[in-house]
Amino acid sequence: MGRRRRRQPDPADAARALPEAIAALSRTLPAAPSPEIFRRAKFDRPEAAPALWRLLFHVLSPLSADSASVSFTLEAQVRWVKSVLHSQGYPRLALVQLQDDGSQGGRELLLALAWLLARGPLPERLLTQSHVRLGDEMPVCECEALASPGPPAPRVEAEGSVDIRHLQWLMGKLQLRWRNLMAGQQEQCALLGKNPWQRIFCSTRLSWNLSGLQLLLLCGTCPPADLPAPQTQIHSYTRGCHSDRSLGHLSVTETELLRDPEGGRQLLQRLETENARLEAALEWRHRELVFWRWMDTVLDTCPLEASPPTFLPRIPEPGAGAAGLPVRELQALQEELQALQEELRKAVEARRAAWQAAVGGHGPEWRAARRALQVAVAQDLAALQWAWEQGKGQARPHGPRRLVRTEARVPGRLGLWATEATEALRAREACLEAMLHQLQGQCRQELARLVGVRPGLIWVPPPAR
Amino acid sequence: MSIVTVQLGQCGNQIGFEVFDALFNDSHCPGGLCSKRENEAYQASCKERFFSEEENGVPVARAVLVDMERKVISQTLSKAARSGRWKYGQHSCFCQKQGSGNNWAYGYSVHGPRHKESIMNLIQKEVEKCDSLSGFFIIMSMAGGTGSGLGAFVTQNLQDQYSSALKMNHIIWPYGTGEVIVQNYNSILTLSHLYRSSDALLVHENDAVHKICAKLMNIKQISFCDINQVLAHQLGSVFQPTYSREGSFHYRRNPLGDLMENLVPHPEFKMLGVRNIPQMSENSLAYSTFTWAGLLKHLRQMLISNAKMEEGIDWQVRPPLSGLPPLGKMSVNKETHFNTSIANLVILRGKDVHSADVGAFKDPALYTSWLEPVHAFNVWKTQRAFRKYEKSAALVSNSQSLVKPLDMIVGKAWNMFASRAYLHQYTKFGIEEEDFLDSFTLLEQVIASYCNL
């Protein structure tokens, strides 16, 4: 057979590998600059910095790229990126010290980007966020909405104080917009129940418009009890049409795709761009080793930090992929948690001892009150425990779920009944409302206290709602 | 999205009929200066908002008629049915045999609770007919007994039962030299209650509309019918469909919601006024031509000089120079005062509407200091002409223009209250002096807020 000659690595290949790796990364991230920008950033060229600031902003922001970029100046984006990186534990001080106008620091930004890429599957997470959804969906929890608070609204820079009337105006506008969205949402639910063929264009147009705030909104409002439950006649009309047997029927989006060629073309375009990004992500995974080696060289060119840098770009083992990372992270988390618990226990003991020393020796009525308090706290804890155990039984899934009308008795492997999800959301809504009332009561008490402070003053409260 | 109209009292029912008539006739106006397809979209949009379909194809107004006397409601129903083109629902009205005697307290404390269930049931039925509810449009007068007292009660109940739906109250401001002796009491009680439970108060002053009829329409013997027709024309030019966005040709789906979001988000500033240009008798229409520049110039001056029609505008009133505060704080005694706006909405309908330049309305000097024109000013457009007007413009504004009338009414009511005149009529039915005092406080606060813009 003869020995197979090993192919010598072609030096031209090596030269091409890096730009191709970076190009793949560019194609998979939203609003990413060209590989040339990356190269310039390594040498800290000024033109690279703004592009990289914008890239970091889009990567860290949970909103879609187009809507976020329009309303924020570069300066606002720079400040926001710095604060988010800091809150996520980014160790390098040099980044924080960069100027707010976003004109310098290409190299530091590259390091920050590499840090984010190394921490977790960043391209995959971004792709999941911007995934094109084809089914009629309903969220079962609000983890996504809570976990990543978006960038703050663009601030109006006032020289002096801000006029409170302007704030009241904005607050009122937000409340009205909320009510308008609720009305739109109810319309969508009603339309799903009516004759779908005549009204479907309304409902899909609505869903495009509502997509941004839909998650937050749906969490609080399920179809109201007084309207009949949506019959989802589209689901029953289109039974047997879907190529995927487990789904069985078409969703609103898919039906619209068949009816309206223009809408269908747009949907196709979005799917094609998503595909391109997915392919780029795959390519990136194949080539990232080259990128990490290059990042080593970037780090080498940085001047030494006064405090030792606590970060080195990690080179993930080819093949192990992302599997090894969660385990290590979990271990670190566990140790942190234990340390915190120990600290808490010590603090509580110290506090309790001090308090008892301070108040010990009061009359029997005080002791009775204390006992009542203890009983109440024990009850609260027991209720919490019970509630948690109730929820523990079902593997509570996260994120939005596709609505499927089915004759099956049991939901599929990853499925759950819409009624259960609705119940869970209603319970959460009740909980949040109770919390809101409690906070409002506290505010009212505080106001009453303030009113009592200045006896000569007459308070005229705003007209009650 | 649909709007459910609640017509209350004699005033509300008569106006309501004229409004639906105007809306229907406009949407079925032949021509309209646009393509057939555009016309059909306009018609469909108007129909969805204000009419529902019945079996025999005659559109039914989405309205509930309420009055404590039979006469006006039967007249209204028959007038609508006679036209053959649209009608009211047979079972959409509620009336009794006994009036309210112009007593706000009677309407609010007696009629209200007694007939609450029947009235709210009627409204519920109308709401269920809608695919989606944009909000309620409640037409009432301020000075009578049924419209004002019962109207305040109904609005409060709508707030309780449909808390997320929007409510706009269309209020008829009585003649300054009105016939009802207690009209000022009724007015302040109505306004203060509505300020708490409604989202927007769209005001039409009888005096102003009367002048329009006399000067612009050249009507010799002005009847309520003429006044109501002018009102309906103005309301129609606000509520008929407009494009949802600059450059879009799809009609806006939620005009009530968008209007409120732009004009009344602030809880202290809820009073809106309407102005319309051109307004003339249909005979003169054929002989007039207009340019957008001319119309908008007049409309702007009408706004800042607080004129209600395009004749007799005071052109001396100018916006204050930028950077300088307006000449002293507004005093209700000064005759010519510059009318500061909080927010404005201009609605343009007709030929070449996209070439109309509304830049003059974006002048920061027109607005209060805490809101910039980019937030305070909005413009809606459509190519489709309104009725027979080749070009027409309407302006809905949240401004100081109602401060003077309001202050006058509060002053007169206070004088009566201080001498305890006619109070027993109200305390007899459960409206105590406390309630009066609360109303005065609230309205004084509103006046102060508007004056301090």
Automatic annotation (TrEMBL), chain A:
It comes from the Eukaryota. It holds the Pfam family TEDC1. Residues 89-194, 232-300 form the Tubulin epsilon and delta complex protein domain. Signal peptide: none annotated. This is Tubulin epsilon and delta complex protein 1 isoform X2. It comes from Odocoileus virginianus (White-tailed deer). The gene is TEDC1.
TrEMBL record, chain B:
CDD domains: delta_zeta_tubulin-like (cd02189). InterPro entries: Delta_tubulin (IPR002967), Tub_FtsZ_C (IPR008280), Tubulin (IPR000217), Tubulin/FtsZ_GTPase_sf (IPR036525), Tubulin_CS (IPR017975), Tubulin_FtsZ_GTPase (IPR003008). Coiled coil: none annotated. PROSITE patterns: TUBULIN (PS00227). The keyword Nucleus applies. Keywords: Cell projection, Cilium biogenesis/degradation, Cytoplasm, Cytoskeleton, GTP-binding, Microtubule, Nucleotide-binding, Nucleus. Its main location: other. It comes from the Eukaryota. Residues 47-247 form the Tubulin/FtsZ GTPase domain. It is found in: Cell projection, Cilium; Cytoplasm, Cytoskeleton, Microtubule organizing center, Centrosome, Centriole; Nucleus. Acts as a positive regulator of hedgehog signaling and regulates ciliary function. Belongs to the tubulin family. This is Tubulin delta chain. The lineage of its organism: Eukaryota, Metazoa, Chordata, Craniata, Vertebrata. The gene is TUBD1.
